[in-house]
Amino acid sequence: MATNPMYQFNVYRIGPEIKIDQIDISFTNASLFMIISSISILFIFSLGSSKKNIVPNKIQLFAELSYTFISKMINDTAGSKGKPYFAFIFSLFMFVLFCNMFGMLPYAFTVTSHIIVTFVLASFIFVGVTIIGFLKHGIGYLKLFVPSGVPIVLLPLIVIIEIISYLSRPISLSVRLFANMMAGHTMMKVFGGFVISLGIVGGWLPLSFSVALTGLEILVAFLQAYVFAILTCIYLNDALNLHH
Question: Among 110, 117, 97, 125, which residue's Cα sits nearest to residue 225?
């Protein structure tokens, strides 16, 4: 079973079974790695901000670069109105990034390879951005679905397309992250299986592919966290500035 490339995505219970009205809320390996990721983020950034040296150490440098990177991303996509939401975007990016990176460790569990995790994150963003849009603009937020300069004949069709596009945001946002992480880890497991089955003599080619694929997957892990965060900023920009 362990050689099955899909086995790595199995969610299993850790500890006793806990149910509330037939709903299983037991602690699982997915829960464990989400907690590990969250604690690691808090630990690293606590160390990085505890001592502000003139010549920063590696942890402080990582913390400062991360802060600058996210701050610039928000400013470039959502403008100055997006600054109050820095803490949320920063936390979101780091959580996805650390979950992705921990999934690269041997025998670890990739939380973001499960659609339920990414869909819950995307749905929370979708609902939150929609609420912000209506709080900022009231009923005028519906102008988002009516692009300017569209001929009156095409307007009903365009409005329907805009509404469908808007409602599909949580689906596209969640599937993009889940699919990329799941596909990459599956390929790594497949090539790893080839290395073991072919042995030392015949396994050098799939081994070289595995090494290259590991490097590529690390890059993908960062890029997917970045894409997830920047799309959130773009959606937030629509809610704050009402571009249509």
Answer: 97
- The values of phi and psi at residue 55, to 5°, are -100, 100
Could you tell me which residue, 5 or 44, shows the higher pLDDT? 44
Which tens digits make up the pLDDT trace of 171-205? Answer: 999 999 999 999 888 888 887 777 777 666 666 77
Domain spans in the chain, listed from the N-terminal domain onward: 7-241
| Contact by Cβ (8 Å): 108, 102 | yes
Count CA within 13 A, CB hemisphere, residue 19. 5
Q: What's the chain's length in residues?
A: 244
- Nearest alpha carbon to residue 90 among 78, 74, 77: 74
Q: Taking residues 221-229, report their average pLDDT.
A: 95
CA dist 155 and 146 (Å) reads 7
Strands (DSSP E) contained in the chain are 19-20, 23-24
* Both structure tokens of 53: 């040296």
Q: CA–CA distance from 162 to each of 81, 92, 128 (Å)?
A: 24, 26, 19
Give me the residues paired with residue 20 across strands: 23
Q: Which of 176, 83, 73, 169 is nearest to 126 (CA)?
A: 169
CA Rg value for the chain: 22
Name the residue with tokens 């990085």. 48
Provide the token pair at 56: 């920063």
Q: Which residue, 41, 223, 22, 8, is CA-closest to 114?
A: 8
Cα 80 to Cα 5, 15, 179, 234: the distances in Å are 45, 47, 33, 13
Distance of CA 242 to the CA centre of its chain: 25
Contact 111, 37 (CB under 8 A): yes
